[in-house]
């Protein structure tokens, strides 16, 4: 896998876009998934994923080929999502009613975004609930929790993706875990 | 209450499997006799299990095309080569 990725990256550097298409296919699910869990919104997740792949392509020459490509790509992705979260209106909150609707809040909008067969509805409700609790975490804890427990990354890889010492990652996971526990126990 | 604060770090180190065997045994023994730590630990485990249960899904089908469409035009040299 790593050899294949390396070969593809070298091809992309030579200007072969077909090779980049293969890289996109290899990583798009993970990139999209991270973006979705961080943002809680499918449109934004797609937007950020596209942007992440474009940036990776434009900066492919600055990528250190001896390191893991996915780590570098996920770093671009999480940086973009955290940036996006910061740029949202400071008072944006999922519980806020949407202007011009009769008490509909942003949660409802996300549900409406995802039409699913009936047998998946119960599961969806559970998923929505977890997603909501994850989105309630401050972004810096959110990233650590998403990478650790949803994407199953090691502490070392998380520290490289988020560009911070392993000790800081641990602290964020501890605090994120405590904050989630508090919310999940009270609901 | 004093216990809670003091042991909170231990609980996380235990969950992250960062204790040596002796420490681990001492901690487990403490938890057996301490209701608040026992509750805290099991709630954290439940929280982690719930978060881990989130389902994975695929990116939208058109994502690859959208990405490829957004890239600057391919370098001339490559087009000749192909």
Tally of extended strands of chain B?
0
**Biggest sheet character of chain A:** none
Helix/strand order of chain A, N-terminal first = HHHHHHHHH
What integer is the average pLDDT of chain B?
84
DSSP strand content of chain A:
under 5%
Which structural class fits the helix and strand makeup of chain B? Answer: mainly alpha
Mean pLDDT of chain A: 86
3D shape of chain A:
globular
Q: CATH-wise, what's the superfamily of the domain at 1-94 in chain A?
A: RNA polymerase sigma factor, region 2, helix turn helix motif
List the secondary-structure elements of chain B in sequence, H or E.
HHHHH
Task: Quote the beta fraction of chain B.
Answer: under 5%
* Rg calc of chain A: 18 Å
The helix fraction of chain A, in percent, is over 70%
Q: N-to-C terminal Cα separation of chain B, in Å?
A: 72 Å
Percent helix of chain B: over 70%
Residue runs with pLDDT of under 50 for 5 or more positions of chain B: 76-82
CATH class wording of the domain at 1-94 in chain A:
Mainly Alpha
CATH topology of the domain at 1-94 in chain A: Rna Polymerase Sigma Factor, Chain: A
Radius of gyration of chain B: 26 Å
Tell me the span between the first and last alpha carbons of chain A.
43 Å
Family (chain A): Belongs to the sigma-70 factor family. ECF subfamily.
Domain RNA polymerase sigma-70 region (chain A): 23-89
GO biological process, one term (chain A): DNA-templated transcription initiation
Protein name (chain A): RNA polymerase sigma factor SigW
